[in-house]
């Protein structure tokens, strides 16, 4: 007897790295797709959100189905028995990434991510840091070996972006692809258009 599919429910985490707009747009995209969202944001994420967008954690929470406090380690998303499609951390700081890699979690944000790994559910980390030193790269390798998807928000110029919003939405859309979700704002590669039919 096959198991029932996971409910259309995704955990969205925000850490304090630059790029709070990615988490914000992910929540909006998932709402458009009819997916239930469980938000958890660190204290540093709330500060970054206000600095970069002028919005507050209350504004962010208004875009989520459910909001959990980062200190609430007894929340539903701290247990593997709470079924989800997976978790997206957007943006993901190096500190958050490192906690997840070690399994020594200090908040609901990293505990929920640890749950995804142990339950073999998709965990997508939009890591925001550059340049990367060897320790960062080794941590990413360890996480990839555990099953996480490392998805830095990099511009896709083939999509012909005209605005910052275009760039953000493309990265968010590609991250949602991992969960099998097709957001209409994601631009798909349609093959190389060569002028005059010349071969490369």
What's the helix and strand layout?
Elements: E1 9-14, H1 20-32, E2 36-41, H2 43-53, H3 57-61, E3 66-68, E4 86-92, H4 94-102, H5 108-118, E5 123-127, H6 134-146, E6 149-150, H7 164-177
Parallel strand pairs: 1-2, 1-4, 2-3, 4-5, 5-6
Helix pairs in contact: 1-7, 4-5, 4-6
Labels describing this entry:
alpha/beta, 200 residues
What proportion of the residues form beta strands (DSSP E)? 5-15%
Mean pLDDT score: 94
Number of strands: 6
Q: Please state the structural category.
A: alpha/beta
Report the total helices. Answer: 7
Shape: globular
Sheet with the most strands: spatial strand order = 3-2-1-4-5-6
Biggest sheet record:
6 strands, parallel
In N-to-C order, the SSE pattern is: EHEHHEEHHEHEH
Oligomer state equals: single chain
Helix fraction by DSSP (H/I, runs of at least 4)? 25-40%
**Uncertain residue segments:** none
Cα distance, first to last residue? Answer: 52 Å
Rg from alpha-carbon coordinates: 17 Å
What would you note in describing this structure?
The protein has 200 residues and is of the alpha/beta class. Helices cover 38% and strands 14% of the residues. The chain is built from seven helices and six strands; from the N terminus they run E-H-E-H-H-E-E-H-H-E-H-E-H. The protein has helices spanning 20-32, 43-53, 57-61, 94-102, 108-118, 134-146, 164-177; strands at 9-14, 36-41, 66-68, 86-92, 123-127, 149-150. Helix 1 (20-32) links the parallel strand 1 (9-14) and strand 2. It is globular.
